[in-house]
Amino acid sequence: MQTLRRTPLHERHAALGARLVPFAGWEMPVQYTSIAEEHAAVRSGAGVFDVSHMGELELAGEGAHAYLQGRLTNDLDRIGPGRAQYTLLTNAEGGIVDDLIAYRRGQDDYLLVVNASNRESDRAGLPETRDVSDGWALLAVQGPEALGRLGIEIAPFTFRDDDVLGVRCLVAGTGYTGERGCELGCDPADAPRLWDAILERGIVPCGLAARDTLRLEACYPLHGNDIGPDRTPIEAGLGWACALDKEFPGVEVLRRQKAEGPAQKLVAFRMEDKGIPRQGMAIPEGGEVTSGTLSPTLGEAIGLAYVDAGLAEPGTEITIDLRGRPRRARIARKPFYEREER
Questions:
Q1: Residues 22-28: what's their mean pLDDT?
Q2: CA 227, CA 266: separation in Å to the nearest integer?
């Protein structure tokens, strides 16, 4: 039996009565009160997620920028020190090994935040990097009131070192909910103190379940569900994160796929009949559901799916096979939810 790892905040989660579940080799809080309450807290106020299970890789020294520029899909020349960028690590076939955030700390100094389940595969694809994950705790504070309650200002996809509630942190204007907010990286020993100070500001603790419903409303893909080594960025609608005029693994495949058009595309859909779609459900017209949920914000069932390219136009009716029961759905425009600027 696999021994699950625990974040520095495990005792805090247990004390709050969180339901703890295995996730990517970690014992993580899936919810504290209810998905609906935690989801609503982020959409209307502020919530905090323990995402210390995420991996961190770093590379610094002469040639670091050129090395990563030749292996990640996005154009790192577009960001300078203090800026962050969403990017992908692809294999020779153009499949998505991982999606990650690259933080440029200096001209030749990078921190990469990667998905927890992909630390080993990322290191295999980026062997020059150093895995420093054990030296980080990471908290995501998200929602329209998040920055105000923390008393900080940070522009999207920028970062800096700063003191937050008495703890030295890397403060980044990034997140995975469709709301404004920040992610706070700190020494694992300081994480409990930072967590307690955040909750004292009236920020609601939230689990992985609400994180999933929030990201799905925003149509952010989840690695292992919506994207993976067998799917390309062009199929997944992530071509915008690929600089096809430079060289990186699989770029020739992506150039050809963009020119010819992919056979399937990742689309959003809304259920028209009753039923909640789930990963793996077939679409008889040609395709498969990759993510699905009952949207707490919209009050309707939504999902993401790969469908044959001819079905991908918004408004197209499709069928979802809900365990042998055909149910009607319709292709929707992305995203389902966009925050209002306040």
A1: 97
A2: 9
Asked whether residue 110 is assigned to any structural domain, the reply reads yes
pLDDT tens per residue across span 329-339: 999 999 999 88
Q: What is the pTM of this model?
A: 0.96
Residues 126 and 79 in one domain: yes
C-beta separation of 174 from 183 below 8 A: yes
Cα 264–chain centre separation: 22
Q: Which are the contacts of 97, defined by CB distance < 8 A and separation ≥ 6? A: 88, 89, 90, 91, 118, 121, 122, 125, 229
**200 falls within a domain:** yes
Look up the domain containing 106 and give its range: 54-131+232-262
How far is it, in rounded angstroms, from Cα 208 to Cα 154? 24
Number of domains into which the chain is organized: 3
| Tokens (6 digits) for 209 | 């379940």
For residue range 207-251, list pLDDT tens digits in order: 999 999 999 999 999 999 999 999 999 999 999 999 999 999 999
171 contact partners, CB below 8 Å, separation of at least 6: 152, 154, 159, 160, 161, 162, 164, 182, 183, 184
Instruction: Say how far apart CA 164 and CA 125 lie, in whole Å.
Output: 34
Q: Tell me the longest C-alpha to C-alpha distance in the chain.
A: 59
Asked if 35 and 141 sit in the same domain, the reply is yes
